[in-house]
Write a structure and sequence with these properties.
The complex is a heterodimer of chains A (339) and B (306). Chain A is an alpha+beta fold and 339 residues long. Helices cover 30% and strands 22% of the residues of chain A. The longest helix of chain B is centred in the last third of the chain and has 15 residues, at 229-243. Classes of the chains: A alpha+beta (339), B alpha/beta (306).
Chain lengths: 339, 306
Amino acid sequence: MSNKKAYFISDDKLNGFIESLNEKVPVYVPQRFDRADGTGIYTEYRPYGEGEVDLESRTLLSVKSIFLPQCEVILGFTTNEERVDVVSEAPSDERVLFSIRNCDFEAVRRLDLLFGWDYRDEFWFARRENTIIVVNICDSPLDDKCFCHWVGVDPVATELADCVMLRAEGGYIIWRISERGDVIIDVLDKVGADEVDVPEVEAKGFDNAIEVDGSHNALFEIFTDEIWKVLEPSCIGCGICTFVCPTCHCFEIQDEGSKRVRFWDYCTGYEFTRTEAHQPRPRQYQRYRQRVMHKYSYYPRRFGVVGCTGCGRCISACPQNVDIREDIVRLLKRAKVIK
Amino acid sequence: MTEAVNIGEEFRKKARELLRKGEINAVIGYKKSGLPPYSKPHIALKEDDTDEFIFDVNCVHNLVLYVLNYLLEYPEDKVAVLLKGCDQKSLIVLAQESKIDRERVKVIGFGCPGVIDPRKVEGDEEDAHKSLTAENVHDKCLYCDVRNTPQADIFIGEMVDIKPTKERYFREREFYGKKSESELLDFWKGAFSSCIRCYACRQVCPLCYCDICISYRNMPQWIELSPTTDNNMLFHVRRAMCMAGRCIDCGECERVCPVGIPLRLIYNKVSLEIEDKYDGYRAGMDSERKPPLQEYSMADPEDFIL
C-alpha cells in the first residue's frame, strides 16, 4: 500500500460525494425503492440517481445482477438487402460498484472460478474487469441472518478491493487499496472530506459458527439418504432463493426475435431440468437437494470453495421460511460431520 | 378484535389419533418458525411429528397447496389437513376440477377469528405478530363469511360468530373506482417493472397446478422470458385469465411476492367481474354449482361471437 491516508465522509456529504463521482464514472450503489403495494421498501444495486441511497440494509438482489444481469443480449443481428451482420459485444465502459459487502465480493470471486473454468465467459470477465470495487466491510453482522463466518468468508477482508469503506459514527471512513481506487480518492479530496487514519478493524459478533468447509465429501455420501424427503417439505419451488443468491449462476439462453438472450434460471423450479421426454428431478425434494448439494458439495468438490458465502438473502427472502442453516445442521448431523 | 382460538392442543391430539389409527398417512398443519411470519407449514408422517403442530394468528399459509403436492406424489395415500374457511374454498375448486379426490382428504375445520397480514407488520418486532389488531388484520378477514370451515369432516374447538365489517373486495372497489384508465396503466407498469419473474405467485397458488405453465412454453413462445415490463405484464395478465372464476382470495400470491406487487388487486377484480356477469358466482362457495367457465348451456347468448 502506497497511500496510508483515509478519508472521513459524513452522512450529509455522502450524496454529494457519490454524485461527483458519478459525473466521472457511472456509480452503482444500493438504493431504496418503494414496493408497489406501499407496504415498505426494498433496496437494490442500481445506477446512481434512480432511488434514495441506503448503504446499511441488505439488498434484495445481490451484486450478481451487476456482473450477470437477469437478462442480457449476448448475440443479435441486423439485416439489410445485401447482408446479415451478427453483433455480439461485451460491455467495456468503466463503472464503480459502491458499498459491496464482503459476502457478495467473495461470491463474485468464487464465481470467477466457474466462469473461467472450461470456457472463459467474455461477458462476465468484461464486466469484472471494467468494475472498480468499493467494499463496505462489516465489523458486526447486519442482522441475525448473516452467516458468512460459517462458510469461510472474512467479513473485514480488505486486500482484493480497490477501495474499502467502514461505517463510523456519523459517516464512513474510506481508504484506497489499489491504484484503480485513485479515482475515488480524487473525488473525496475534491469534495473536502477530512483526512483520518486508517482504522484497525476487528469483526465482532460473528459467533456460533458451524464449520461447513471440508464436509463436501461427507455430504456427497448422503445423496440417496431418506432425510432429503422430509428435510424441507414446505419449499414451493419458486425462484426467489436462487435469484437473490450471489452465487447461484445457472442461466438459460433463448432467442427472442432477432436477439439471443441469456437470463437467470433456477434449479428449484420444475422447468429447470424438464425435457419433452424425461424429467430427471420430478419431485420438489430432489430439486431442493440439487440447490443445497450444488452449493455445499459439488462446488467445493470441483473448485475447492463452498458455493455459498452466507449473505443470508435466501433466509430473509424465502416466503415459506426455509432456513438453509437449519437444513445444513441437520444434514451435517446425518452425515456424522457434527454431533 | 378477538384473540386466536386455542385449538393447538386439540389439533395435536386429533392428529396423533388419526396417524395412530393408520387410516391417514399424513397430517398437514402449521409449526412454529423463528422468522416472520413465525409459522410455517408442517407435514406429520409419524405420531411424534405431531408435537410440533401449532395454530395462531400468524398461520397465514394456504395448506391446500401441500395437500395437492402430497397427493400428486402419493396418489394412493390419504391426508388430513387443518383448513381455515377461506383455504377450504380452494379445495372445493380443486375437487370441482377433478384435481383432488375429495375422498382422500380429511378436512379438520375450526372457527377462525382471522389472521395477520404479515406485510402490514413487516419489520416490526415479534410482539406485533402476537395478536390481531385493527392495524395488522388481513383485509380478506374483514369481509370473511366462511369463518367456521364449511364441509369440515372433523370440527375442533368452538364455532365463532363474527360478522363481516367491510364490503367484499372493498380495497379493489375503492382502487378501481377512483382511477382513470391511463392512471391504472401507469400504476401497473410501475408495479410490473419491479417483477423479477421468480414465479413465487404461481408456485404458491394451489390452483396453479399445470405441469408446464404457458409462461414456460417455447414452441410457440407465448411469453418471452426476459423480465421486461411488457413481458411481466403479459405474464400477470395471462395468469389473471387463468384465475377467472377460480381465485378464492387466500392472498398467498400477494404475501410471497418479494417486491410487493399487489396481486390481489388483479385477481379480486376478475372475481368481481365474474360475480357480476355470471349471476353472483363465487369460486369455492358451493361445490354443487358448476363453475361458469366450465359449463356450457344451450341458452348461452354468444353475442360476443361475430
